[in-house]
Amino acid sequence: MARRISETLRKTGMNVPVEFSDDSQRVRHYEEREDRSEETEHDRYRRKQARLAEQDTSTSLPIKVVQDEVVKPKAGTRFEGPIEKLIETYKDPREVVRHMTMGQYMRYELRGGQIWEGDSLIYDGTAHLQET
User: Model-level pTM greater than 0.70?
Assistant: First the structure.
């Protein structure tokens, strides 16, 4: 290809570059250029590393420590006992319902300030009614 370029340049009346005039020089030039390209790639890599080090990156940011949040217990998230114990503890039917678990809430319902299990009255707000 170099020979073709040099022939084209001679035909057009332009001077042929020295590096293409001799085959040994051409090989030497190719080897030098190859060495130079490796150096430049390495230099480019080093320059890129230096440039990135100067910029603000995630490694230069301060480490933030996340503090644990205080977990507050929520009402009704734990089993406090059977319905009888809830009635003894809280007395008010609305408060009893607030402290029921999901299973108890599905079984009992609050109607008109009274706690019912299906069609039978369990607690009327004054006394726990035992149905047998």
Answer: no
